[in-house]
Amino acid sequence: MVAKSFILSALFFAAQSSVVYAQSSTALIDRQLLDQIDFRDAAFSVCFEQRSCEVGVSIPRSSSNDPLELTVAVAAERDTGILEGWQPAELYWDPVDGFGVLGGGQNDEIDFNERLTISLSEPLNIQGMWFSDMFIGEQSNYGVSYTEQEDLEAADVVASLTGVMVFERRVTGQVVVPDDPFNVVVSDDFVEGGDARNRVLIDEGIVTFLIEDETQGSPRIIRAAVGEIDPSKLDIFAGAEIVDIDPATLLGETEFAPLLAAGLRNQLMMERMVTNQINLAAWHTEASRQRLISSVPNGEVGTVLNVATTVDQLVFSAELMTSNDYSVAGLVVEN
Asked: Distance (Å, rounded) from C-alpha 208 to C-alpha 146?
């Protein structure tokens, strides 16, 4: 029987504690990712619209004049439903936020049925991680109100070494979603709402769809009840085996029906701009400047491990929530 609530089982997190902090006016994200694995760096632009990519990274070492040279491999996947399961997807990248996964509900971020895998050519002592576009207070945007959990976005991270998990971590949004997106403040080449492809939400047996309304020129919300069976059709199910199905798996089927055409606009813009290294560098610099002077937050959240942990792979995913999507901005390595 399909669960009426969309809430999935919480991850069992490692006992290792961490410090979590939100981006402030000090532009901490830019200071901490300097000379680190900064996915917003233009070197990673080659990954845009690729299923996977490899990028060489050079990290200065305090103990040696020779930098640490390694290869970072990035891959995207999407859960396409019950029959096919996890399949390769395409990567999204931009110099403001870093990595997401193309398609899904939010075209530039990691949605509930998507995951991003970072593989390192040699093990590194990871000290922290930075995320972007991770907020609280998104429920009102979709006309829903959930009582069983907080209204926040969350990233789930599983880190491993030679195939053995070394820690799990959940990082959540710390600031309220702004009225205007940060990317539009950085450059008017980005369009507000230019990444939203669709929204399909489940709560207490009610499915909510955000769909295109050509007559209004803007999206509209429709709702339908699930779990109700027409009494005249009960005989059809007589003797049938009842099977529990994860709602997230069912909703994975919806990714083949993108509903909001406007959600492609920023992707199409990036297709034109991604080879323009001058523009990419300018956006990166302007984003750093706006973090110092703008009142518009970008949902940048970092987590620091109390003890640096040796890993060679990290998998980033998201739980099924009201609006749970985010970007991965970078990794902080013990030096």
From this structure: 12
